[in-house]
Amino acid sequence: MSKTYKTKNIKTRESYTTKRIAQEIGVHQRTVQEWIKQGLTPIENSRPYYFMGYELKKFLEEKQKSRKTKLQPDEFYCTKCREAVRPTDNDAWLVISQRTIGKQGFKAVTIKGICENCNSKINRFSHSGNLKAIRETFNIVDIEEVKQ
Ligand SMILES: [Zn+2]
After folding, report:
1. Residue 3 falls within a domain, yes or no?
2. Number of domains comprising the chain
3. Cα of 125 to ligand 1 centre, how many Å?
4. Residue 85 Cα, ligand 1 centroid: separation in angstroms?
5. pLDDT (tens digit, 9 = 90+) per residue, 32-90?
6. Does residue 2 belong to any structural domain of this protein?
7. 133 and 76 in a common domain
8. 20 to 30 A from 137, CA-CA: which of 9, 49, 82, 84?
9. Does 138 share its domain with 83?
10. CA of 103 relative to ligand 1 center, distance in Å
């Protein structure tokens, strides 16, 4: 399921709308909105959102790199440190979605933490089939259930 995004044609000095990003990269606009939650930063105060090409490029390259980094069960990929890191105090927050993934109908789970090296927010994606292991691996500070 790993996808390679074509970042070569992104012009670093140009600004992009959500729609244009979706067209150029070949993804749904909803995917781009998801990227914003994952850390794609729009130009400050832009409404509707505009994104600088270099920001988009950096985000997608990091995303690709994080896929290639093999993580231990207790590690996260930090987009700032650009490497596998551990969460501060081994604390983690879970966001459990009603959205199901895969044939077994597991719920999507996002594990959130704080990078122990740089204090950035770090995320790791998992599913409800791993909940027991996740609880054994991290100190779960909070669990939030969301619709989406
Ligand atoms: Zn970090």
Report:
1. no
2. 2
3. 17
4. 7
5. 998 987 789 999 999 899 999 999 999 998 888 877 888 899 999 998 898 899 999 99
6. no
7. yes
8. 82
9. yes
10. 34
Pairing of strands 106-114, 121-127: antiparallel
Domain-embedded: residue 30: yes
Give distance in angstroms: CA of 128 to centre of ligand 1: 26
Q: From the CA of 84, how far away is ligand 1's center (Å)? A: 8
Whether residues 99 and 42 fall in one domain? no
- For residue 100, the CA-to-ligand 1 centroid distance in Å is 29
Distance 117 CA to ligand 1 centre (A): 5
Same domain, 76 and 57: no
Residue 91 in any domain: the answer is yes
Cα 55 off chain centre by: 15
Phi, psi of 49 (to 5 degrees): -65, 135
**HSE (CB half, 13 Å, CA atoms) of 101?**
14
Output the six-digit token pair for 62: 């990091």
Length of the chain: 148
pTM greater than the 0.85 cutoff:
no
